[in-house]
Amino acid sequence: MKLSFQEVVKRFGDHTVIDRISLELDGVHCLALIGPSGGGKSTLLRIVAGLEYPTSGVVALNGREIEYHDEALLRHRRSIGTVFQAFNLFPHLTALRNITLPLEKVHGKSGDEARELAEGTLRRFQLLAHAHKRPAELSGGQRQRVAIARAIAIKPQVILLDEPTSALDPEMTAEVLELIEELKREGRDLLLVTHEMGFARRLADRVALLAEGRIAELGPAEQIFGAPESEVTKGFLRRVLKY
Ligand SMILES: Nc1ncnc2c1ncn2[C@@H]1O[C@H](COP(=O)(O)OP(=O)(O)OP(=O)(O)O)[C@@H](O)[C@H]1O
Ligand SMILES: [Mg+2]
To answer: Which domains does the chain have, with CATH numbers?
Structure first.
């Protein structure tokens, strides 16, 4: 994927959360965003997802500038897959319906098409046996895999994931990480916010460390984890890798 930020600023009131971020990436298949809590990772991801407007600046994904007005954003959101950390399934709907509903309402598929796409995706992730369960009847790992299945049912080229494993225990985390790795293997481009440093190192071809709304360091995973240059990166990694 190509991703470009030019002088992007996001303020909430007088709180600057993204502070003039500029970057140009090309040919990247997995960009991992890491960094301390409150640093702006989710906000940056939401801006790329078209769920949050930048206060100023220009963002382009795969050569196309994201236009931050309703009609264009709707098209943009339809073209990407988005997975957030927890509670993102409709609790009163079955796994299957959680997937078919947006396919019908957002993507304009017929009931039959939606069902076929949803069942195909659930089958692929060994979730078909759970198709008729509601989220409360699924394990945390299954729930998150259904959320990922929903995001990729339309086969988006770019998938945005915000801490997809943060609410999971280690075994379920492994299940979900395997699934994400498989998406990368099949050629999808990922923009991933994660606290799983080992996973970021293994999967990402670029890693950006975001702190206080700025990119403290951006480079290949080997550089960030193996030979970080910025003091902010060094301090952050020392803290998170301590335990
Ligand atoms: N809708 C909002 N209104 C006001 N402030 C917000 C809003 N969303 C985020 N913020 C603030 O922006 C800052 C960055 O938040 P963000 O969620 O992007 O951080 P993060 O890096 O994802 O943190 P974490 O690792 O804890 O998820 C925080 O100080 C947060 O309080
Ligand atoms: Mg966050």
So the answer is: 3-240 (3.40.50.300)
